[in-house]
Amino acid sequence: MKTFESIAELRSVLKEMRAAGREIGLVPTMGALHRGHLRLIESARDRGDSVVVSIFVNPTQFNQPEDFDKYPRTLEADEEKCARAGAEVIFAPTAREMYPDGFYTSVDVTKLTDELCGRFRPGHFRGVATVVCKLLNIVQPDRAYFGEKDAQQLAIIQRMTSDLNMPVQIVPVATVREADGLAMSSRNERLSLADRAIAPILYRALTLVADALQNGQRDIDRALEPAITLLRSVPEFQVEYINVVNATDMQIVTDVTPQMRVAAAVWLGGVRLIDNVPVSL
Ligand code: AMP
Q1: For the CA atoms of 128, 37, 174, 265, what is the dihedral angle to 10 degrees?
Q2: How open is the CA angle 85-89-91, to the nearest 5 degrees?
Q3: Rounded distance, CA 168 to CA 126, Å?
Q4: Which residue in 103, 89, 109 sits closest to 166, CA to CA?
Q5: Model pTM?
Q6: Which residues lie closer than 8 Å to 104 by C-beta, 6 or more apart?
Q7: What is the pLDDT of residue 125?
Q8: Percent of the chain clearing pLDDT 70 (strictly above)
Q9: Which of the listed residues 41, 68, 150, 185 should we mutate to test ligand 1's pocket, taking the one with most ligand atoms within 8 A of CB?
Q10: Is 124 a catalytic residue?
Q11: What are the phi and psi torsion angles at 142 (to 5°)?
């Protein structure tokens, strides 16, 4: 396995891999890899792809400089994990390589960014869509793998690649959780022990809503009520949102639809946690 900082060097290796008949699977990440990321790499490898993992803490998708500064950076450990999971190439560019002086282009996906994290993190998804568009153009993979943990991001990337006729298949991968239900996240490392013990309540709240809807509750507000009460009962939580959305366009639903997601974001001890669960009727 090799790590490249330079787009030109990466491209020349990818050209050789393609000439040898390999199909390329891209796994975009911000590093600080955990089992959730590794599941994406394994999914790509299991499909027979030669796996390229990008590791780039993208400055343009952070709306708080402090969050960007505090984001864990663990390249050496990440390299070992990628190698063990079967990745062949890591692309770890500098910010300057991705955004040289005179960079003025961005990709804006509308509508799907209206609610959930889009509402609370202005500009975040513009940063995400732009960097993913660049990564897809740099690597030109056959497939790119994204976690359902970030369901709104996944929907936005699917929309962008479809709207812009980008020749790549987007492959969703189910959320990997700790034994107590907490969705794995690089940010979990920043939770204190006490907060780590409380954090799984977020997942419990989401499953309350999903279970109610799957058990026949047709009133969305009623389905949400017990979850809101549960989240509010935890003084350490500052709830940003909890909503039921249409899984395709990420609009808040007032009537049940066949494919929905219950999604929430809370702050806990200075750490922002997001999670979501699918609801299929
Ligand atoms: P990040 O490094 O947080 O930007 O995440 C990189 C990719 O890994 C994204 O597609 C995420 O959705 C995915 N991912 C992060 N956490 C998990 C998880 N717990 N389960 C599955 N995929 C995940």
Answers
A1: -50
A2: 115
A3: 20
A4: 109
A5: 0.98
A6: none
A7: 98
A8: 100
A9: 150
A10: no
A11: -75, -40
Decide if 175 contacts 147 (C-beta within 8 A).
Answer: yes
Closest C-alpha to ligand 1, atom 19: 184
Q: What is the 3-state secondary structure (H, E, C) of the chain?
A: CEEECCHHHHHHHHHHHHHCCCCEEEEEECCCCCHHHHHHHHHHHHCCCEEEEEECCCHHHCCCHHHHHHCCCCHHHHHHHHHHHCCCEEECCCHHHHCCCCCCCCCCCCCCCCCHHHHHCCCHHHHHHHHHHHHHHHHCCCEEEEEHHHHHHHHHHHHHHHHCCCCCEEEEECCCECCCCCECCHHHHHCCHHHHHHCCHHHHHHHHHHHHHHCCCCCHHHHHHHHHHHHHCCCCEEEEEEEEEECCCCCECCCCCCEEEEEEEEEECCEEEEEEEEEEC
Find out whether the beta carbon of 176 lies less than 6 Å from any atom of ligand 1: yes
Expressed in angstroms and rounded, the spacing between residue 214 Cα and the centre of ligand 1 is: 26
Which is the catalytic residue, given 10, 28, 37, 141?
A: 37
Q: Which residues pair with 143 in a beta bridge?
A: 25, 169
Place of tokens 């890591």: 90
| Distance of CA 216 from the midpoint of ligand 1 (Å) | 31
Structure tokens at 178: 């700790």
Please indicate whether residue 150, judged by its CB atom, sits closer than 6 Å to ligand 1: yes
Check if 272 has its Cβ closer than 6 Å to any atom of ligand 1: no
**CA of 275 relative to ligand 1 center, distance in Å:** 11
pLDDT value at 107 more than 90: yes
Measured from the CB, is residue 273 less than 6 Å from ligand 1? Answer: no
pLDDT band of 280, cuts 50, 70, 90: confident
Residue 218 CA to ligand 1 centre (angstroms): 31
* Residue with tokens 């026949």, as numbered in its chain: 216
For the segment 75-81, the average pLDDT, to the nearest whole number, is 98
Number of residues that this document lists for the chain? 281
